[in-house]
Amino acid sequence: MTAEAAPANAGFASLDALVRPRSVAIIGASDEPARIGGRPIAYMKERGFQGELWPVNPKRATVQGLPAFASVEALPSAPDVAIIAVPADNAIATLDSLGQKGCRAVIVFSAGFAEMDEAGAEAQERLTAVARRHGIRMLGPNCLGVFNDAIRFYGTFTASFEKGFPIPGRIGIASQSGAYGTHVFAAALDRGLGAPVVITTGNEAEVALGDVIGWMAQAPEVDVICAYAEGIRESRQFIAALDLARRNRKPIVMMKVGRSQLGGAAAKSHTASIAGDDTVTQAVLDEFGVVRARTTEEMLDIAYAATKKIYPARNTLGVLTVSGGAGVLISDAAEQAGVEMPPMPEAAQERLRQLVPFCAPRNPVDCTAQVTNNLPLIGEFAESVARDGGYTSILSFWTQTAASRSVGPSLKEQMRKVRAAYPDRLWVMSMLAPDKVREYEADGWICFEDPSRAVTAIEAMGRFGAAFARAEQPAPEVPLPQVTLPEATPSEAVAKALLAEAGVPAVPEHACSDSEAAVMAAEKIGYPVVLKILSPDILHKSEIGGVLLDITDADAVKHGFATLLERAKHHAPSARIEGVLVAKQIPTRGEGGAVEMALGVFRDPVFGPVAMVGLGGIFIEVLKDVSFRRCPFDAAEAERMIRSLKGAPLLDGARGRPKADVAALAKALSALSAFAAAAGPRLTSIDVNPMLVLPEGQGCYAADAVIELEGGSH
Amino acid sequence: MTAEAAPANAGFASLDALVRPRSVAIIGASDEPARIGGRPIAYMKERGFQGELWPVNPKRATVQGLPAFASVEALPSAPDVAIIAVPADNAIATLDSLGQKGCRAVIVFSAGFAEMDEAGAEAQERLTAVARRHGIRMLGPNCLGVFNDAIRFYGTFTASFEKGFPIPGRIGIASQSGAYGTHVFAAALDRGLGAPVVITTGNEAEVALGDVIGWMAQAPEVDVICAYAEGIRESRQFIAALDLARRNRKPIVMMKVGRSQLGGAAAKSHTASIAGDDTVTQAVLDEFGVVRARTTEEMLDIAYAATKKIYPARNTLGVLTVSGGAGVLISDAAEQAGVEMPPMPEAAQERLRQLVPFCAPRNPVDCTAQVTNNLPLIGEFAESVARDGGYTSILSFWTQTAASRSVGPSLKEQMRKVRAAYPDRLWVMSMLAPDKVREYEADGWICFEDPSRAVTAIEAMGRFGAAFARAEQPAPEVPLPQVTLPEATPSEAVAKALLAEAGVPAVPEHACSDSEAAVMAAEKIGYPVVLKILSPDILHKSEIGGVLLDITDADAVKHGFATLLERAKHHAPSARIEGVLVAKQIPTRGEGGAVEMALGVFRDPVFGPVAMVGLGGIFIEVLKDVSFRRCPFDAAEAERMIRSLKGAPLLDGARGRPKADVAALAKALSALSAFAAAAGPRLTSIDVNPMLVLPEGQGCYAADAVIELEGGSH
């Protein structure tokens, strides 16, 4: 689906003028280098911007030594990009002048719009309307701007350059928050990581985070994208951007805040974000292999490792260590992170044991401190881990050895040689040698002091690799059914029929108006059956004894039919009785009993229809053990969702049960997603709960279903 | 219980000679400073050890310039401590000589003992026997030794001092692994953290990790203990040590590896650890407020923060930030870590809003970048957070502002003043200003670049504080019952009766040999009842229809009694029939139904009887949602265990159920723990499953119970 929906790269290239301009006008240019309207000029002068720089200031002939223009109209031509650094009151008129001049890209520093109050929000709408009328790509308002050191363009008033301008590097930062975006930039700089392209989106009146990520996904300046989001405001460009980045093998590390209830509250007070539910965002990020960082440090750890551009599609980790304790610690971290550490081949283990009798050669491969007495062994062990183990990622733990005057140089040389012989591997060094890090990095190593942080980064590279590999497969076709929604919210029976037609089976049942029909229905469905009183006026059937279980023969059907009518007459004399519902009785307890699941769909305000699956009852309500996915998706994806549940072992025969028919459940879930995608925006939600899953080969049946439509009730 | 069981500080002071000796003999002393027998001498000469240094070497008159002794016998007197650096073959004889000389503390570097093979394990047993005969405290064998820079004592052959000797500090490191212990020492040194006391325990033939932690818990050299464990070998000293550290308000941060299955496998191949089950160890650590670090970096983060000795018993976090985004990120991290962030008082919020109109004063308090234009506001905001918010911990996020030439100095001065006015608070600074960290630390700040790491450290301080506060309460008395275990593993009925007597109620039931007795029993118990065939030869009653539910009157009892006997005769003609069991029927479904729980006890090889509670069925088997605790404990502790379960909301009326009788369940769990503690070592395990918990006020009943005894079966 997504492949078809994605626009060509050129769509995102419409931001080129914003990030890679050849001429820049600064409206509200200041002669003071420290003022908001002065900083871009000061930075570009200092760094040597490669294009034209046109300050606009009606009161001055020159600004910071450059000839100034009295107005937008006075500019020699339309600038590639204009920076609006005037008060909010003047911003709209200025934007209009720029549009008339032919300018098609604008960065609005001015604050006092939607982030402030209702009046500001209205002003922002007027501003945006002007931008759209002229076809202007507009960053902001209320944004810190953008910089691209590749061409020395500094369309920003950040104060972040006191400790230095960007160093060369391959990381791009896309951030909804100016303060946080430049914080990440500065934190990277402190670590020696180059992030020369930073784009902050502010109020996102026109250009949103998705546009910026999409631009980076196709821009040669950027290999790795660090993104910061408080809430995703639009989904089309955002999803197209994630898809493009994945197809172009550019990893995205995202800090999405507001995941906690607490954080969610703060996010809403901070911006007027239309924050989609965090769980849905997470599902979308998972879909495209975006790795969500838990901390800023983790974001930079992952970005740092990613700059090597080695993304194993099926990641395995080999660990070489001089400390058994560290080996165990790393094994713990790898299992926690879900990184596989297969053992070394037996023959290789045997050979290593002959080299160092008390080594532990399985994996982690502990060559023990013995090797420091016989240095060539280091290389032999490393070589064996790479060659015999065949691991895609190799983590080498050397604690202080790398800093040792006696052993360090030989260690470095031997490891360098082995690394160079296997350049396709992700080689990571964990060592306590701050002074040596730059030297090892020059040899191509990824260096972490803490081995646990190394494991986190290694896991992320594997996740990127798996996502990139998936992107190479043709997108699965999910045929959409023809769906005609009723005028009003349908009854349970109509809802089940609609879904059954779309491939979501319901418990077989028939409405019968007399006992002969009931017997025929029961014989057709097969015993045992359930009888339920059928009346639009009796909502809680069980309260009046209106449900009879374990009906096993024709006599019992007849007797039961009479009993139900009698009870209805007695307890609800004024109710309209339409007859009796005869339904297949699905056993839920005991040997061959069904597992109770719940399926659902709801319309996310940003991402549209989203399907959910969970184990019934307590699993959903108490443990929140559910999985989400954008609609539609195929049965294979549905099965991945089901398998990702913590309670999934229940479907695989836990507690002595037979295996449940997961294939049928996956098919039904996929069909539900296709139904939701085809139903259009009037569909508000669907609840299929319980969905009873019988043992393998016996299918699954919706025992209840509710479809809610916009504004509709019956 | 623990308070009584803990030995006086003096017990641990028996390690004084090992860590704080006035005279040191080195047996196997080498003239080569780089050899194992040479390093301790070289280090102590370089650092200026304050006591006597006696090299023992039969072949040399001097060793590294010091007069050497030909033998242990030739020493001028018994040394406070002797270092044995001779081959394993000679170690036992050397130890014996030292014992005869009157030496009572020995550090054994020699390897080739239990870590090697069976023969080594036997040699270690002989070595240990010699140590015990002489009353020698013995560290090792196969250990890297100990150092205590306070008196310049270096009883170690570590190669870790290439990058420097310890700097002053208050951290002690106790490690089962020499390589990892010195790795932590070196990692601390790289961060400017002083860890002048390091003790590594090697094979732990005599002195174990518990002794070392206990020594640090009473030693004035140490405020904060970093411990590394692969497996806990003995519990008495270990628990006494944790208890003493807690009572002396010394926090312990522990890295316990082998938590994963993978890691567990590696831990066993690395040492011959008798590793107690990780879950049990975790329960013991939780009991004493030991914080378990997930990574080495986290261990040092927590130790660093702990050196301030501010441990809030009820921790609340106030956050002051210049970035809204960072505020949300910190809120997310705090919620994740379980740190409370109560809002600022309304009046204070109003006042701050008047100072900076667009600030967000709730908590996180976002004073916005506006304050950098009006610097005195910084102090006013910080003061308000401390004074009005009253938070015990305050995290202040200033990103690069602290490094700014224009704003930085004023920021530092204002924050210094406020910090000094509230010295009892845990003040933490998150900033991107590596060059300024030492200056801020000199002002008393705890500094982290990453705010998420700051939150983790802050959470740990609160956990320490809560544990220290609990230690001030008198230990709850848990009266132990008189328990007389039967000769052999008892039947279900006997097991239930034994437990019921000890305060673990069982479902009321009576064995009845005729139908009159059955009717009397049913009337006494109250309807509905369950009837079960009673025969030692029929194990699976339900298979022959030997269980009847929903018996509601005397007639049904009589009829049921006859039915069961008939069925037994038919299906199991040779079975001995003892009659029928009449039991109270506890409803488990529907409105007033019971919640199914499971209680259990098992004997951990290290920590003795450990009790467990979990929600029945899938919760235990699929989700491993259980809580453990050493026996015995009181009902309040039992309730804390129950409340810690993920599924606990089920007991509190989730899904429309009535609240369950948690008080009765807690009482039963505590009674079970007392029973297990009183039963002695013959008790192997107890399973009470299901334990049916009725609505509040109606109690709980064991529906089944199994008690297993050592070697016993019936």
Automatic annotation (TrEMBL), chains A, B:
Q: For this entry, list what GO says about its biological process.
A: tricarboxylic acid cycle
The record, for InterPro entries, names:
ATP-grasp, ATP_grasp_subdomain_1, CoA-bd, Ligase_CoA_dom, NAD(P)-bd_dom_sf, Succ_CoA_lig_flav_dom, Succinyl-CoA_synth-like
Q: Which domain of life is it from?
A: Bacteria
Task: Kindly give the Pfam families that the UniProt entry links to this protein.
Answer: ATP-grasp_5, CoA_binding_2, Ligase_CoA_2, Succ_CoA_lig
Q: Does the entry feature the keyword ATP-binding, yes or no?
A: yes
Alphabetical keyword list? ATP-binding, Ligase, Nucleotide-binding, Tricarboxylic acid cycle
Alphabetically, the GO molecular function entries are: acetate-CoA ligase (ADP-forming) activity; ATP binding; metal ion binding
The residue ranges of the ATP-grasp domain are 496-532
Family statement drawn from the similarity comment of this UniProt entry? In the N-terminal section; belongs to the acetate CoA ligase alpha subunit family.
Q: What is this protein called?
A: Acetate--CoA ligase family protein
Which species does this protein come from?
Answer: Roseicella aerolata
